[in-house]
Amino acid sequence: MTGDRTTQNDGTKRRPSTFKRISVMLAFLLLLFGVLGFGFYRHIQTLIASAPKPTPATVSTITSEPTDWQEQITAVGSLSAVNGVDVATQVAGIVSATPTRSGATVGEKAVLVQLNIDPDKAQLASLQAAAELSAKTLNRDTELLASHAVSQSTVDADAADLKSKDALVAQQSALIAEKTVTAPFAGDLGIVEVNLGQYLTAGTVIVTLQDLSSMNADFLVPQDQLASLSPGQAVSVTLDGLPGKTFPGKITTINPKIDPNTRNATVRATVPNPDKRLRPGMFVRVAVDVGTPEPHLTLPLTAITYNSYGATVFVLKPAPSGPGKVAEQVFVTTGATRGDQVAVLKGLMAGQEVVTSGQLKLKTGAAVGVDNSVQPPNDPNAAPQEE
Fold first, then answer.
1. DSSP class of residue 186?
2. Nearest CA to 109 among 99, 118, 119, 117?
3. For the chain, first and last CA: distance in Å?
4. If you count DSSP H runs as helices and E runs as strands, how many of each does the chain have, helices first?
5. Per-residue pLDDT tens for 98-134?
């Protein structure tokens, strides 16, 4: 019995020793994981602290100021000469002379092309001889009528015959005149399209003749803007081919009929062209001042961000804490545009600093840095720039 208790006592002593070793091992593992976790946490904190801090976004700005805004109606149109025609022959014939040259400036009634008239002149001489004979016959029978040697009906027949012969002479003379093609008005010729000896049929175009001293600018205006227009109103015409050049003119005609398909009316303005820089067929832009100038806040078009929910701009305000400025997005109501500018009707006050470029990287509260060394275009009379 003594031996059994010893064994039992020995066994009892061994079990606590094994449990103690396991507990020490678990404590060591927990301590190891804790040290590793703390080291990883400190490493993450170091990486966050060493990461580059965001710098203020660089933008350009402009101070909103009221300016006199002249409302305009703008449209695109095309030019045509006040007097312009493609000269064609009325009768057939062979070209016998071309006294003019391509590109020449000619006066009214200047001969452009002469068709062969030799056979027509011979025919005219024959008809004139017949008319002279009829006139002599009429004179002789009129004298005989006084002595009752001929009847009144004979004299009447002679008179009718003379009129018929005279009509044939006039018809032949007109035919000869038609074979001499002349300029209907003074102007500049284009390229002469015919040559000596060429046979022309009736209606063949010989040359274009354009009076370039003044031009018609035809443009379309919507029906709701017609009430602002009237004949005599001043217009300005510009075109891409002559940047920076403006041609003044006046409205001469407003078509009384409105196109039922487009609801537009054609308006014609006449523009003096003393230096002949405008040519028929040119594409032009026409601007008409309407009403009186009104003060409006204006901004460059680049300052406005258009979205499906409205137009917005970014204005700068002092940072709530510390130096510098922050951006704030505000909604605005825009009006008409002119050149590179747009009128702001609501949402902005005079004197506010507005971002004109760089706003794509902004949001409300973002810190900004201002660099106005380069500004976007802000010209009310913008024109294409030459390379």
1. S
2. 99
3. 118
4. 3, 21
5. 998 999 999 999 999 999 999 989 999 999 999 999 8
Distance (Å, whole) CA 263 – CA 256: 12
- Are the CB atoms for 273 and 262 separated by under 8 Å? no
Cβ–Cβ < 8 Å for 355, 60: yes
Q: What is the predicted pLDDT for the residue at 7?
A: 46
Which tokens is 133 given?
Answer: 């004979």
- Render pLDDT for 153-175 as a digit per residue (tens, 0 to 9): 888 898 999 899 999 999 999 99
pLDDT score for 38? 80
Query: Is this structure's pTM higher than 0.85?
Result: no
**pLDDT of 10-36, one tens digit each?**
444 455 677 777 887 888 788 878 888
pLDDT of residue 8: 46
Phi, psi (degrees; rounded to nearest 5) at 255 = -60, 125
Give the 3-state secondary structure of residue 127.
Answer: helix
CB 214 within 8 A of CB 271: yes
* Residue extents of the structural domains in the chain: 1-45, 57-68+295-370, 73-79+212-289, 91-200
The per-residue DSSP string of 77-104 comes to EEEEEEEEEEEE-SS-EEEEE--S-TT-
Task: Please state which CATH number belongs to domain 73-79+212-289.
Answer: 2.40.30.170
Which CATH number fits the domain 57-68+295-370, given the four candidates 2.60.40.1930, 2.40.420.20, 1.10.10.60, 3.40.50.410? 2.40.420.20
Q: Distance (Å, rounded) from C-alpha 333 to C-alpha 351? A: 17
| DSSP for residue 252 | E
Question: In which residue are the tokens 């078509």 written?
Answer: 255
Assign 3-class secondary structure to 332-377.
Answer: EEEEEEECCEEEEEECCCCCCEEEEECHHHCCCCCEEEECCCCCCC
